[in-house]
Amino acid sequence: MNSRLVLLLLVSLSLCNASIRDQSIAVKGKLICGSAPAANVRVKLWDEDGGPDPDDLLDQGYTDTQGMFNLKGGTAELTTIDPIFKVYHDCNDSVKPGQRKVRFKLPPSYITEGKVPKKTFDIGVINLETIFENEDRELLTSRRRRHKNWFEDSREDQLVNDFADIMDGL
Length: 170
What we know:
Transthyretin-like_sf, Transthyretin-like, secreted, 22% helix, alpha+beta, signal, 10 strands, Transthyretin-like protein 46
């Protein structure tokens, strides 16, 4: 009896593992603020999960001096991933606390099977002067995030960054 139960458990686990699959996505584009490139803007690629499964940070980075970015990442999921591209910026933001946060849902047709994306979604040129519907604010920012090239990394900044990443996933 015990051996049958163990065998049933092993078969169930292997079937569960077989249905979890690696999926990946990539996004690229250019951010501007008015007519100028939006340089050093924080960008993140997420898999937003509903229910008890926490969101997965797939990739993150900053725009270059021309406002260009290229993010790619993947995760293993039982269901199809729900890729979200997030931008954190201060374009036309005067002295308000925190940063403007904008999110874009990416087309599922750009999700590929495997750990490396086979195609890249080109989101185009986005002018961050635009006031986006459902725009949000991120109130926790560190000096490193806002001016990553001007300050040395510190333990305090890293803790703030880690906490903000957790809050982004909620």
